[in-house]
Amino acid sequence: MTATATLAWREFRFQRRMFWRNPTAAFFTFLLPLFLLVLIATVFSLNQSDLNHFIPGIAGMAVMSATFVSLAYNLVFIREQGILKRIRGTPEPMSSYFAGVISNAIWNAILQVVIIIVLGHVLYSTPWPKDWVEVVVITIIGVAAFASLGIAVAQAIPNFDAAPAYMNAIFLPMIFISGTFYSTDHLPRAIKAIATALPLKHIIDGLYGALVSGKGLSHHATAIAVLLAWGAAGLLLATRYFRWE
After folding, report:
1. Residue 66 in contact with residue 30, Cβ under 8 Å?
2. Residue 81: half-sphere exposure toward Cβ, Cα within 13 Å
3. Using CB atoms within 10 A of its CB, is residue 168 exposed (0-12), middle (13-18) or buried (19+)?
4. The pTM is what?
5. How many angstroms separate the CA atoms of 44 and 184, rounded?
6. Which of 17, 128, 142, 191 would you call most buried, defined as having the most Cβ atoms within 10 angstroms of its Cβ?
7. d(CA 71, CA 27)
């Protein structure tokens, strides 16, 4: 058990180095949400009410980008290059390998949420979270849900050339209907119903509650239940259909 944990830690450190040595991945996974935060908030001179919705929205998008999008892209790439098959043939336990890969994505997501909260407070006077426990719980559950979904979706992508089309077909509509850039209160009923069934809106709502309303986790029991359901579905599909080659 100790050897497996040690190898997982080394794999995590290796994944961190590889992440920062890939400028494209570092920009789209880590820097793009921060860039959108500063650009949109500054160019459109958002008022305080809009900022209070926008900051949690960007934080939720960062969670999805760092886990769901990143893991799906990376797994498809290393599978199609034959790297995943070769890794399976090494003495490294698969649990250590996937622990390192997933931990890297989780670390990126958590770090981004913290940076976005700090930037929102320092640059745009959004309040510090009224409930840090809620921030932590919603972020962890959201990260787990999107990580499992990213691994599951990777199995449906036939090759790396098709990955951008598959991922953008999911990512772009979801961020626009889930309240990333604005409140969903005035969305048409049908679109709002779709957004409510998807996981991103519940991460954003939970973070908004922690940052602005401070009503506590009990107020977001439905959001937590939906995120747990998506996480369980992603884990089931990822386990059932995972491909090494």
Report:
1. yes
2. 9
3. exposed
4. 0.85
5. 19
6. 142
7. 15
- Residue pair 112/30 in contact (Cβ under 8 Å)? The answer is yes
Cα separation, 100 vs 39, in Å, equals 33
Cα gap 186→193, rounded to integer Å = 12
CA angle 84, 89, 93 (to 5 degrees): 85
Long-range pairs, 226-230, Cβ under 8 A, ≥24 = 226/197, 226/199, 226/202, 227/138, 227/141, 227/142, 227/145, 227/199, 227/202, 227/203, 228/141, 228/145, 230/145, 230/149, 230/199
The 10s digit of each residue's pLDDT in 129-183 is 877 888 888 888 888 898 889 888 988 888 888 888 888 888 888 888 887 777 7
- Sequence-distant (6+) residues with CB within 8 A of 42 are none
